[in-house]
Amino acid sequence: MDKLLEITLLYDFYGELLTDKQKSVMELYYLNDLSLNEIAGEHGITRQAVLDMIKRTEKLLNQYEQKLGLVSKYLEQKAKLERITDKLNGIIKENGLNIKELDALTGELSQILD
What we know:
Elements: H1 3-14, H2 20-31, H3 36-43, H4 47-68, H5 70-95, H6 100-113
Helix pairs in contact: 1-4, 2-4, 3-4, 5-6
């Protein structure tokens, strides 16, 4: 998995367990794409302190995932739902069906995936 995607998923699931300063630095770095120097200036700390905080926070988020496994469970469920949606769409296309119930099911699955 791409590191940016991995960290943002971990942050989405476990961000509320972080301190306000950790959340702020992670959001500025990963979500707002600020440089280490820009974040350092905003928080009144050194560039090295920002880098250290990012590394420690990434490690902490990974530890939460190792213990709780919420992201991996989410990704497994998403993959299963995508397979189900694909199979339902295949059934509809192969049989030329336009059954409202099947369409409703695929719609509901799509909503879950989003």
